Task: inverse folding
């Protein structure tokens, strides 16, 4: 069985949302930073099992320092969300729990995966200590540059969305 599911990828400016999507969809990475204005939409089919796949319609939302300003029109019809923070910039995760409450209110009853990106730039043990001390819960620590955990996080979301169908 094949299903299409809308997945929004959101977070603050410059956390690597576009890079994660490009790594997942095209297996490429670029150090050149381009600001996403509005939304950019791409698609990738994820094979869950033989004869069972999910088309992820990936909505790459523009970054914002105030999650409450996300346009509700971008969120209509959303089946799942990936919230990305930058592990090198505490300002992107210091208020993570509050940001996630806002996202959960806007996207009632959809799965949300929380991803710390840019793991290639920090010591993993130091980061895990900092996140623990600040009570920051996450699902994946990834690197769009190396590809670490990128396939895993999108496959996990596809699996969750397939189960919800």
Result:
């Amino acid at each position: 069985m094949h299903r299409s599911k809308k997945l929004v990828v959101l977070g603050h400016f410059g956390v690597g949302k576009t890079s994660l999507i490009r790594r997942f969809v095209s297996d490429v990475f670029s150090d050149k930073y381009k600001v996403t204005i509005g939304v950019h939409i791409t698609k990738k089919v994820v094979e869950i099992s033989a004869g069972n796949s999910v088309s992820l319609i990936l909505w790459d939302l523009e970054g914002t320092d105030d999650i409450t300003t996300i346009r509700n029109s971008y969120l209509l019809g959303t089946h799942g969300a990936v919230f990305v923070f930058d592990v090198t910039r505490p300002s992107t995760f210091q208020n993570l729990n509050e940001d996630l409450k806002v996202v959960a209110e806007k996207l009632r009853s959809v799965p949300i995966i929380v991803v710390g990106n840019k793991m290639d730039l920090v010591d993993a043990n130091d980061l895990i200590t900092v996140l623990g001390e600040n009570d920051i819960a996450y699902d994946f620590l990834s690197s769009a540059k190396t590809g670490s955990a990128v396939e895993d996080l999108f496959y996990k979301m596809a699996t969750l969305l397939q189960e919800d169908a």
Observations:
- DSSP finds five helices and six strands in the chain.
